[in-house]
Specification:
alpha+beta, Endonuclease III, domain 1, seven-stranded mixed sheet, Nucleoside Triphosphate Pyrophosphohydrolase, 14 helices, 44% helix
C-alpha cells in the first residue's frame, strides 16, 4: 500500500475515515448541533483549549448567553467572567466584538461563507473553515494541530511544521481530501483521529483506520513527525502587586481592553525595573497606575505562573493608603471592593490565590468580631 499514488491514498482516506468516525466519534456537547452560534462558540474555545477542558465552560457559556443577540447585549465584564479560568482572554473579547458586528451588520445571523467569516474579529482560516463546513455544509478544509499531525504522518511531510511552504502543502492536502458535500463530518473525523489515536507522543497506530497507507507508520517515523523547531526558553519577569486596604475594602483596577489579559481586574502593581527593590517598584507602580501613595506593610505571598510566551514571579504585598484618591491613570477603571465580593469580577489565574487568601482572612475575622461583640453586651 506504500506505493499508492497520492490520489489513491486520498481516496482510501475518504472511504475509511468516515466509517471509523461513525463508530468512534467523541461525545462532545456541541456535536450534532447545527446552530451556527453554538458551532462558532465551540470553535473559538477550541482554538487554544482541549475539548475535555472546554466542555464545561462551553455549556455554562451557552446557558449564560444562549444566542448571538444575548452575547452582543452583555457587558464585556459579564463575558469575561463567564470565560474566567479558560485563559487566552483575547478570544472572549473578540467573540464579544464579533457578536456585536453580526448584530449590527448581518441582522444577527452569522455569515455562512468562510470569506465572510474571516472578516469577523478572532476568526482565522481554521475557524472560518470549521464553522463554514460544520454549521453551513460548505466544502471548506480545516488545519489545526491535530489535523496537521495526521497529515504530516500520513504523507510523511518532513519539513518544519510552521514553515510557510509546509503550511501551504498541508492546506492543499486538507482541501483535496474533502469528500464533496461531507466536509463537516469529515473535518471532525480528522480532528478526532488526531485527538484520540494519532497522538503527539504515543500514537495508537494499531487502532488507526489509516495505518495501511500511513507513510510514517511504514517507515517508523511516527515519533519524529511532524517536525518542529526546538522550543525557545521562555523569558522571565518579576512582578509586584499590592493589596491596598481602606475601611474593609481592597482596591482593584481593570486592565485596558487591548493587550494581554485585557478587560480583566487585578490588584495594582506591575513589572519591576532593573535596579529597583520590590517595595520601591510597588510604590512607583501603584502611584503611576492608580494615583495614590502607599506604605508597603509586608509580604503576603509569592506566586509563580507561566503564560504562553513568558513566565512570571509575582510578589504580593499588604499595603496601606497614605495619600491621594484612587484614579484610573494606567488602567481602565478602579474600584474599592470588600473581599467577599471579589468573586463577582473576572481576574487572571495568577490572582485567584490572592483572592482565596483574602477570603480566608475575612472568614477568620468574623468569629473574632462576633466573640468580642458578645463579650461587650451587658449581662441581663
Amino acid at each position: 500500500m506504500n506505493t499508492l499514488t497520492q490520489a489513491k491514498r486520498i481516496h482510501f482516506v475518504q472511504a475509511a475515515l468516515p466509517r471509523w468516525y461513525r463508530r468512534r466519534r467523541r461525545d462532545l456537547p456541541w456535536r450534532g448541533r447545527r446552530d451556527p452560534y453554538v458551532v462558532w462558540v465551540a470553535e473559538i474555545m477550541l482554538q487554544q483549549t482541549r475539548a475535555a477542558t472546554a466542555g464545561p465552560y462551553f455549556e455554562r457559556f451557552c446557558r449564560r448567553f444562549p444566542d448571538i443577540a444575548a452575547l452582543a447585549r452583555a457587558p464585556l465584564d459579564s463575558v469575561l467572567k463567564a470565560w474566567e479560568g479558560l485563559g487566552y482572554y483575547g478570544r472572549a473579547r473578540n467573540l464579544h466584538r464579533a457578536a456585536r458586528r453580526v448584530v449590527g451588520e448581518f441582522g444577527g445571523r452569522l455569515p455562512g461563507t468562510a470569506q465572510q467569516l474571516l472578516k469577523l474579529p478572532g476568526i482565522g482560516r481554521y475557524t472560518a473553515g470549521a464553522v463554514a463546513s460544520i454549521a453551513f455544509g460548505a466544502d471548506e478544509p480545516v488545519l489545526d494541530g491535530n489535523v496537521s499531525r495526521v497529515l504530516c504522518r500520513l504523507f510523511a511531510v518532513g519539513t518544519e511544521l510552521k514553515a510557510a511552504a509546509t503550511q501551504k502543502r498541508l492546506w492543499s492536502l486538507a482541501r483535496r481530501m474533502i469528500p464533496p458535500g461531507e466536509a463537516g463530518a469529515f473535518n471532525q473525523a480528522l480532528m478526532d483521529l488526531g485527538a484520540t489515536v494519532c497522538l503527539p507522543r504515543s500514537p495508537q497506530c494499531p487502532a488507526c483506520p489509516l495505518k495501511k497507507i500511513c507513510l510514517a507508520h511504514a517507515r517508523n517515523r511516527q515519533q519524529e513527525l511532524p517536525r518542529r523547531s526546538p522550543p525557545r526558553r521562555l523569558p522571565h519577569q518579576t512582578i509586584v502587586a499590592g493589596v491596598i486596604r481602606k475601611a474593609g475594602r481592597v482596591l482593584i483596577g481593570r486592565r485596558p481592553e487591548e493587550g494581554l489579559l485585557g478587560g480583566l481586574w487585578e490588584f495594582p502593581g506591575g513589572k519591576v525595573e532593573k535596579g529597583e527593590t520590590l517595595t520601591a517598584a510597588l510604590r512607583r507602580e501603584v502611584r503611576e497606575e492608580v494615583g495614590i501613595r502607599v506604605r508597603v506593610a509586608g509580604p503576603l505571598m509569592t506566586l509563580r505562573h507561566a503564560y504562553s510566551h513568558f513566565r512570571i514571579t509575582l510578589h504580593v504585598f499588604e499595603c496601606r493608603r497614605l495619600a491621594g484618591r484612587a484614579m484610573a491613570l494606567g488602567c481602565a477603571a478602579v474600584r474599592w471592593v470588600r473581599p467577599p465580593e471579589l468573586g463577582r469580577y473576572a481576574f487572571p489565574a495568577a490572582n485567584r490565590k490572592i483572592i482565596a487568601a483574602l477570603r480566608r482572612q475575612a472568614g477568620a475575622a468574623k468569629p473574632r468580631l462576633r466573640g468580642r461583640a458578645r463579650a461587650q453586651r451587658p449581662a441581663k
